[in-house]
Amino acid sequence: MSAEPLFETVCLVGIGHICSSLALALRRHSLARRLVAFDIDPDACRIAVEMGLVDIASTDPAEVVPGAGLVVIGVPVGAMKGVGETLAPHLTPGTIVTDTGSVKQAVVRDLGPAIPVGVHFIPGHPIAGTEFSGPASAVEGLFIGRWQILTPLPGTDPAALERLTTLWQTIGSNVELMEPCHHDRVLAITSHLPHLIAYTIVGTASDLEGHLQQEVIKFSASGFRDFTRIAASDPVMWRDIFLNNREAVLEVIQRFTEDLTALQRAIRWGEGEILQEKFTETRAIRRAIIDARQA
Amino acid sequence: MSAEPLFETVCLVGIGHICSSLALALRRHSLARRLVAFDIDPDACRIAVEMGLVDIASTDPAEVVPGAGLVVIGVPVGAMKGVGETLAPHLTPGTIVTDTGSVKQAVVRDLGPAIPVGVHFIPGHPIAGTEFSGPASAVEGLFIGRWQILTPLPGTDPAALERLTTLWQTIGSNVELMEPCHHDRVLAITSHLPHLIAYTIVGTASDLEGHLQQEVIKFSASGFRDFTRIAASDPVMWRDIFLNNREAVLEVIQRFTEDLTALQRAIRWGEGEILQEKFTETRAIRRAIIDARQA
């Protein structure tokens, strides 16, 4: 290595899709001299080591957490509290702890109290990922050109924040700072509602009688298919997101339902102008996404 | 050309996304000696000729329709009736007339009565297309590996059906025969509901105050983006689909709303097991789509 790595040891907690992809990125950019993992699943540990994602992986935090300069927690949001309590005795002052959870207020609430004094807790959320799960689903370059949202709490050490920012920027992410509450509201619209809708529509299809269901699969390219990818996302992860961002999600469901009812009524009464006007507005949003290079 | 083309002259009526892509496919496979187009929009006619999609394009059906062995009508479903009446005086016995409309019962109802005796009317629907419109959006190979649904009426001439089937198969489509009523029910689920939902969710986002809307665009990769592509589809085409497949669409909206309400309730009351179970079921559908090579 030409330069000193940013961290001596990085410990990945929960070696699933995000942390395993992060391991690939950290290796590629030589950001850690040593990569270790803690996971309660021995199979995940074995696969992570066999794939060369990390140097050591253990189901015992005492073996891998102490001495890590950075700990990245990539577990479902509902597991944060328990993981925080498990990690706490092994964390040493000066360590940076971050997470990859899709909800931020609940993580601050659940993980925050467990973090010992002197340990820098900086919640984060990479807007990246596929519908796949587990260490074997690691994707090279997953974070390139994607957003990394960090929601530092009041009084966060600026040097720790800068080091974590540098890490994400080095692996290709664009770092954005946000309030946890604002994060949860924005993501309820951009991510949680779309996933809930996708789960619903795919669920509606899966309740159809057998023959009709086969045809839905056969002719899925006509629109349905676009929804099935995100409805194949990890069930536990998504259960936890909805349970832990309840208020914001219920509010956007309400808005969505009102809007759907308005279109339903226009269809029932044959009000073509209302439909055409609404469908014309939505084209502009797609264009804005393409212009923002997020398409 | 080594062999005789399947048709001497093919006339494309409404030279938009589907018919212009069909023109490319017909040329590539030498399926017509002469390609002509009728469109009420002089700009579309000009572009279609300039791009070399067709040999002649005219806003006057008398100039292009007579003598065509195959007429393919690719206009919004709501325009079928008027187009049928316009074309009727120029159609000659033996000609095959087909369409590309996304609804089939309404097309049979609106177009059928206008077709003169001796002309073979075989309604069709290619399950293909992008969110783009107009002749300039022609896509090479658009129909390869996609389904072409034909909904022949009782008493359809078998030779005419076979010729039309051969045409679609030659350009790479898989041809499926179906009852118009069954087609409309299947497509209400696989295509019409997904589009309505996508239009709704993107519409919900476009009603947000300016700052929040900018953030929705910025962080759209988190799920929202998957919906915006289909919500950018042609507004008039989709207005007509909803107005002309009203019963089937209203029925699936009803099912969808019930299912969404059940999930909403589970979120409100913190019923994690219900959520996890539902989200696990939907993964199986995605897997089936991948297995059916429609992903």
What this model shows, in words?
The structure is a homodimer of 295-residue chains. Chain A is of the alpha/beta class and 295 residues long. Chain A has 2 domains: 172 residues, Rossmann fold, CATH 3.40.50.720; 110 residues, 6-phosphogluconate dehydrogenase C-terminal fold, CATH 1.10.3660. Chain A is 49% helix and 13% strand. Chain A contains 12 helices and 9 strands. Chain A has a 6-stranded parallel sheet. The first copy, chain A, has a 3-stranded mixed sheet with strand order 7-8-9, with helices on one face. In chain A, helix 7 packs across helix 11. The model of chain A has no long low-confidence stretch (mean pLDDT 95).
Give a brief rundown of this model.
Two copies of one chain form a homodimer. By secondary structure, chain A is an alpha/beta fold.
What are its keywords?
elongated, six-stranded parallel β-sheet, homodimer, 2 domains, Rossmann fold, 12 helices
Structural class of chain A: alpha/beta
Q: State Rg of chain A.
A: 21 Å
What's the quaternary structure here? homodimer
Q: What distance separates the N and C termini of chain A?
A: 36 Å
- How many independent structural domains of chain A? 2
Tell me the strand order in the biggest sheet of chain A: 3-2-1-4-5-6
The total of helices of chain A stands at 12
**Can you count the beta strands of chain A?**
9
Largest sheet of chain A: 6 strands, parallel
CATH superfamily of the largest domain in chain A: NAD(P)-binding Rossmann-like Domain
Q: Any low-confidence stretches of chain A, pLDDT <50, length ≥5?
A: none
CATH C-level class of the largest domain in chain A:
Alpha Beta
